[in-house]
Amino acid sequence: MPEQTFIVNGERVTVDVADDVRVLWVLRDLLGVKGPKYGCGINVCKACTSHINGKAFNPCAVPVGALSESDEVTTIEGLPSQVDDGARGEHGLHPMQEAWLDRDVAQCGYCQPGQIMAAVALVHKVRAEGRTITDADLDSIRNICRCGTYTRIREAVREGEKNM
Amino acid sequence: MTTSDTRLTVDRRRFMGYLLGGATVVAAADLGLLQGTARAEVPTLPQPAEIADLSDLLTLAAAPTSQLITVTINEDGTASFALPRAEVGQGITTAAAMIIAEELELPVDKVHVTLAPARPELLFNQITGGSNTIHAMYTPIRVAAAIAKGALLQAAATLLGDSANALTAHLGQILAPDGRRVDYGRLAALAAKDKPEAVEVELKDENAHAVVGTPVNRIDALAAVTGTKEFTTDLDVPDALPTMVCRAPTLNGTPESVRNADQVRKMPGVTHVAVIPTGVAVRAATFGQCIDAVRALDVEWNDGPVAGLSDEDVLANVRSAEKVIPTLPSAPGSETVEGDFTFWFRSNSAMDTNSAIADVRDGRAEIWASLKNPNVAQGLIAEAIGVPLNNVTVNVVQGGGSFGRRLFSDGAIEAARASKAMGVPVKLMWHRADDARVGRTHPLATSRVRASFAGEQVLGLQQQHTSVETDFRHGLGDIITAKAADLPAGLGNLPFSQTIFLLTTIMPYDFGAVGQTLVETDTRFNTSSMRNIYSPDVRTANELIVDQLAARMGKDPVDFRLQFLRNGRLRTALEKAAEAAEWGKDMPKGTAQGVAVHVEYKGVTACIVEIDCRPETVNRKVRNAVTGPRVTKATMVIDCGRPINPRGIEAQMQGCINDGIAMTLTSSLHLRDGHFEEASWDNYFYTRQWNTPPDVEVVVLDSTEPPGGVGEAGVAAAAASVACAYARATGTMPTEFPINHRTLSFEPKPRTPPVPQSPTDGLDHTY
């Protein structure tokens, strides 16, 4: 069995698993990192959204063999440590997570780790383009919430953006 | 008042209950001694549901076992409560914690609410449905908490040498007039009883509530945003390896034989392959390897019961079951309006697919799953694997949504069968494609409405709803009624559906002779309630005809409704909605407002939306998506009785608005050649960010009525208001829902293999 080595939430991990197993299953079933959720397995629902080297990606659509030793995967569990201590909020979390708490966004909560990871990446993306989040940007978020808490997601993304 | 009168009159704040024996304080309510829970204030022209509705039925059924609901005070000063209901996002754990905190004088964060496992002794008191949890449990939880507080006061009186009446409870401490104080934690063991003791208790005055009625964030929010909230597939049960099921290419087809089981067993990671009644189960080290194995299986299948059929065939079948609509009253010069509406199959698939962990070994079974009906699950699992009921433990896990689906235990039964067949624990998960195609649906239905009017009066309205059977074989929370509902040929289910239709259907207008009937036919589909039962369809058909009546009589839709509404609470809600939404404001051509109202779950809702049907909006492009008309603004006003948690109620209304939009505009299942085509969230078009209104306002009205249900309360008014807005914006009354059903907006995925392979190009799509 090939050895797969990469970085998860700041720690280097090595797993014995075939190249073609998607990263989502390596995280969830083999490493016990349960923040990224399964919602479709075909990169549609976005419930597993995490970051790779600081950019949003969907681990259900990446074979583990495609990762290199230096690739850094960040899941919701590792998001707080992506900002300095001083930038964290009253719960010690990333500003986007704090905005989620402030707006009481979650209902069932299943899609929320993916929503938050997508929101953080969206803010980084529009900042890189030298602008702030618009309604059109919010409309472009593909993460599904079957409870329908979209209104609060939109409010929280804007609040998180301000505090990031 | 004489003494005998006093005995006959039960103060709404005085209740009986028990202090149970135990190491610390355990208090239980006894609602069996509660009088007058079904108050009948007979209104004029009442429909059955206006006298006693589904909420009353469920609450009354639950009351006799309420003394089995207990609140425990722990030695660390916290309180524990195992809620005999399922939290699936609707916020009942938070509401329960608030009610306990209020009555016990504890901070909300000192109240731990967990979900009770299956408790068959609770009979009808462990079903989560009909948005009934708070209606049924508000008083029992208060009584149990108040009894616990009384025991703490008594113990403190002994400890402090003061009388209990002189003491007050505040934020987890008992305070004496001289300033001495003692923590609940220290009193917990002192207040414990050796054996049960009946006590009488007076509840806190609701007007003095300081927690109930204020906005409180969810008690599980921190876990949700940090990824630590555990759903079924997140649980670590030793040796419960990932398991999936390979399913037939037709709906409910069954496996005949497996041609390559030995080869599949040798695939990487695969440990077991076993035939179960619903397909072929595979167990592997990862779910990814399960997907590979499911795709590799070569199975000979028996066709399912609708092989070869399309939804047009099912509609024709429903049409043939339609009955003649009764004659309407007429008068000289009277006219009629009518409508004939079709509602296609819709999916109640949640984000968290049907999943369950099962460990069936040595004649015993332990199950972990999100179940709204765990006692029925326990009975069905015992039957399925052939072990005594007492040998089956069913643990209820928080669910990632339900929308009616978790009333049934399809995944849990499959997991038990797979574990038994394999002889090892399994963590069984439905693929999204399974959940969309084989999971339960809101049944296809037609609704025909006819109304007559003369001058200023509506003389009568008749509605006949004809539907594929809605499955109520989950019973009322216990295995006995579930079995009664499961008599052959739909004969057991029929009384349930007729009763539930009667108990949930209210036409809130003074329209003279009103008749609403249900005909159900066709038992071949996997159906269930879907965040509301009949009402979204029934009310959409109603409210479109109400708008037709208003137009024919030359009246504004809101003015017309206010004139004919016979429910004062609803009139208030509609007036508030019209004001908040600026009803009647100038709107550009191709856009319009729409209004609808609804009565259910002991409350009322009024919804006004604005829709944009202009070509530049309808034709906007989003990759692999349905765009179409956009609801740009939604205003929902709800009076749900005494609000427990306004923040939670607002959240539920926001969700209901998105459900209503989906039901009317975008989301349906397409049956083709014996199977549903949808296999992805990009096939089944639930509301997405590009469909949701950018502007949403929810108004929660204050009320002193008993608290009602909120999880489903807004769907019917939302769905109907969107339909009415669409009709006004386009000048054409829609007759099929969702309006886009006849356009298949995606390329269907194959049926063999039954699940799609995960892509490999994820790194090309980072952002």
UniProtKB/TrEMBL annotation, chain A:
Gene3D superfamilies named in the record: 3.10.20.30, [2Fe-2S]-binding domain
An example molecular function term from Gene Ontology annotations: metal ion binding
TM regions (residue ranges): none
InterPro entries linked: 2Fe-2S-bd, 2Fe-2S-bd_dom_sf, 2Fe-2S_ferredoxin-like_sf, 2Fe-2S_ferredoxin-type, Aldehyde_Oxdr_Iron-Sulfur, Beta-grasp_dom_sf
Domain of life according to the entry: Bacteria
Domain [2Fe-2S]-binding: 75-158
Domain 2Fe-2S ferredoxin-type: 7-54
PANTHER family: OXIDOREDUCTASE WITH IRON-SULFUR SUBUNIT, OXIDOREDUCTASE, IRON-SULPHUR BINDING SUBUNIT-RELATED-RELATED
Entry protein name: Isoquinoline 1-oxidoreductase alpha subunit
The organism of origin for this protein: Prauserella rugosa
UniProtKB/TrEMBL annotation, chain B:
The organism's place on the tree of life at top rank: Bacteria
Species lineage: Bacteria, Bacillati, Actinomycetota, Actinomycetes, Pseudonocardiales
Protein's name according to its UniProt entry: Isoquinoline 1-oxidoreductase beta subunit
GO molecular function: oxidoreductase activity
Domain Aldehyde oxidase/xanthine dehydrogenase a/b hammerhead, chain residue ranges per copy: 226-305
Organism: Prauserella rugosa
PROSITE patterns named among the record's database cross-references: TAT
Ranges where the record places region Disordered: 743-767
